[in-house]
Specification:
Length: 306
Amino acid sequence: MAQLKGAAQLRKYLADPDKIVVCPGVHDGLTARMALNVGFDALYMTGAGTAASRLGQPDLGLTTVDDMATNAGMIAGLDRNVPVIADADTGFGGPLMVARTTEKYILQGVAAFHIEDQVTTKRCGHLRGKELVDVNTYCARIRAAAAARKEMGSDIMIIARTDSLQSLGYEEAVRRLKAAVEAGADVAFLEGMTTKEDMANVVKDMAPTPCFLNMVSGGVTPLVNADEAKRMGYKIVIWPLAGMTAVYLGMRDFCRELKSTGEIKERYTEDGKIDGGVGDCFELCGLSKCGEFDQMVGGTSFAKGA
């Protein structure tokens, strides 16, 4: 099987000692298009955002592998040169199911995904009351993903996430991550850290394995900017709620305006143009490129414009 362009690019980023990958969380085509337009090196498909946008449900393990893989594939397909890192929850079952999940993510063009050690009925890593599987079950998930990757001839990256810090403490969390790396994971992800001390220490304790940092607004982990994360030694930092929070705030305000006034007033840029109109949205999603492609191959559907 041909190697994934996104995975190869992500591996190059991680091999660069001066590089830190900062990913905005995206959950649909529009939020992904905006992040690509701004010029991010990589994107993160959030599981919480996928649950909220596709199902209108909280992040409580309600999404299926098809919900997640299909959404990740759509996002990855917008630009194959930009790596997409995707949430894969617990792998959605036992080792056989984890292997199937891995195959689906590979076929969808995902560059990397993370698998955690919660029970199948999982919850957001920044909620209370998380339940865990034992370390052997966790490592079986990682080995299943690694075996499926090898069988597919893929270079997709496996990120091992542990949610054990909350209930089992730091030392056990690091032990689990080291066991996961031995089982075939490429990157370590300690979720739910509550102090900068733990944030800095896990990078040192997991070296030379690259570490992954999750920045959740309103969550339990102290927020740091990219420069501080880089000084700590992190290689990947995600802001998973970027898209979801923007939609939440924007849609809330527009709906309140429409409900209270009966209209939504147009917004304008500094140079007097309508900001965020239908033309802007369509152009962001590739309107001109579609027309150019149609004409290039001899089509006439857009000869008079669109």
